[in-house]
Design a protein that fits this description.
The protein is an alpha/beta fold and 309 residues long. It has two domains: 141 residues, 3-Layer(aba) Sandwich (Rossmann fold), CATH 3.40.50; 157 residues, Rossmann fold. The chain is built from eleven helices and nine strands. The protein has a five-stranded parallel β-sheet with strand order 7-6-5-8-9, covered by helices on one side. Helix 2 packs across helix 11 and helix 5 crosses helix 6. The structure holds phosphoric acid mono(formamide)ester. The site of phosphoric acid mono(formamide)ester (CP) has 9 residues, from helix 2.
C-alpha cells in the first residue's frame, strides 16, 4: 500500500507514468467512467478548500466511485478532541482511500502511519501540497511540452507557501531548471529549502525583490497569494498583502511564450485584466488538477488501467 505525503514519494519515472495516465484520461474519459465502481474516497478537510476537495470529489465521481467526508474541523469529532491518528484508523473502515488537509505540518504523515488505506496529503500547514505539485507539473508539461531547461519565477509568499516548497522539491529533479525567487525579505524561501534543496542540488537560483526586473527572464511565472491564515499578526499581513500585483503592464515585459500559473485562490496578486492574456494558464491548471487526481486515485488503488476498455 502506498501513500502520497511528499512530491518526492514518487520517482521521476513514476511521475511520468502518472502524467501519461492523466493524459490518457483527458483523451478517453469514457474508458475510465467505471474504473472505481464500488470504491469510496474520504475527504477529511480540517482547513478550508474549494479546489482541492472538490477536484478530488469530481475525480472520484468521474471514475464511478463515491465520496464521503467533512469540510471543516468544526463539523468533525476533531472538535471534541479526537486525534488525527484515531480518525484515520476509523476512516479506514469506511473508505478505500482518503485525502486529508490539516493546518499542522506532518498531520498527513501521522494519519498515514495509523491508516490501513492509501492516504493523500492534500496540504499540511506551511509544509507540502503534493497534489497541487502534480497539477503544476502536468500543466507545465502539457502546455510547454517539457519539464526541463526552464527558468521558473516563484513570486509572493515563498516562506509560508506550501505549493512553492513542493514545486521546488519536484522541479529540482529535472535537468536545466533555474529559479528566480521573487519575494519581500520577510517572505523569503525558508533555509531548509534554500540550503537543503537548492544549494544541496547545485540548482542555479537568484533571490530578488523586484518583479519587473525578473519578468523578461522567465519561462514560467508562478504567482502565489500572501496567506492571511499563516500570519501571527494582522498588521504584518496588511503590510505584505499587496506586495506584488501582476497586471497588463508587467505582462508586457514578459516573453510571448511565458506562462502564468497560480495555485489559486487569488486575491489581488493577479489583476483580472490578465485573465484574458493567452499566457494566463491558471484556470487551465484547475482542469489538469482533476485529470491528475484521477490518475493518482487509480495508481494508489492499483487499478490496472490497461485492462479498461
Ligand atoms: N490550490 C488550492 O489548494 O486551493 P484550495 O485551497 O481551494 O483547495
Amino acid at each position: 500500500m502506498r501513500h502520497l505525503i511528499s512530491p518526492l514519494d514518487f520517482s521521476v519515472a513514476e511521475l511520468d507514468a502518472l502524467m501519461n495516465l492523466a493524459e490518457d484520461i483527458e483523451q478517453n474519459k469514457k474508458k475510465y467512467a467505471h474504473a472505481c465502481d464500488g470504491k469510496k474516497l474520504a475527504t477529511l478537510f480540517y482547513e478550508p478548500s474549494t479546489r482541492t476537495r472538490l477536484s478530488f470529489e469530481s475525480a472520484m465521481l468521474s471514475l464511478g466511485g463515491d465520496v464521503l467526508g467533512f469540510s471543516s474541523a468544526a463539523s468533525s469529532s476533531a472538535s471534541k478532541g479526537e486525534s488525527v491518528a484515531d480518525t484515520l484508523r476509523m476512516i479506514s473502515c469506511y473508505a478505500d482511500i482518503c485525502a486529508i488537509r490539516h493546518p499542522k505540518e506532518g498531520a498527513a504523515l501521522v494519519g498515514a502511519q495509523a491508516a490501513s488505506i492509501p492516504v493523500i496529503n492534500a496540504g499540511d500547514g506551511g509544509h507540502q501540497h503534493p497534489t497541487q505539485t502534480l497539477t503544476d507539473l502536468m500543466t507545465i508539461r502539457s502546455l510547454k511540452g517539457r519539464l526541463s531547461d526552464m527558468t521558473v519565477g516563484l513570486c509572493g509568499d515563498l516562506k509560508f507557501g506550501r505549493t512553492v516548497h513542493s514545486l521546488i522539491n519536484a522541479l529540482v529533479r529535472y535537468p536545466g531548471i533555474r529559479f528566480v525567487l521573487i519575494s519581500p525579505a520577510e517572505l523569503r524561501v525558508p533555509d531548509y529549502i534554500r540550503e537543503g534543496v537548492l544549494e544541496k542540488n547545485s540548482i542555479p537560483y537568484q533571490e530578488v525583490t523586484n518583479l519587473d526586473e525578473a519578468m523578461p527572464l522567465l519561462d514560467i511565472l508562478y504567482m502565489t497569494r500572501v496567506q492571511r491564515e499563516r500570519f501571527f499578526s494582522e498588521d504584518e499581513y496588511l503590510r505584505m498583502k499587496d506586495c506584488y500585483i501582476l497586471d497588463a503592464a508587467k505582462m508586457a515585459l514578459a516573453r510571448q511564450d511565458m506562462l502564468v500559473l497560480h495555485p489559486l485562490p487569488r486575491v489581488n496578486e493577479i489583476a483580472v485584466e490578465v485573465d484574458s492574456d493567452p499566457r494566463a494558464a491558471y484556470f487551465r491548471q484547475v482542469q489538469y488538477g482533476v485529470y491528475v487526481r484521477m490518475a493518482l486515485i487509480l495508481t494508489l488503488l492499483e487499478v490496472d488501467a490497461a485492462a479498461l476498455s
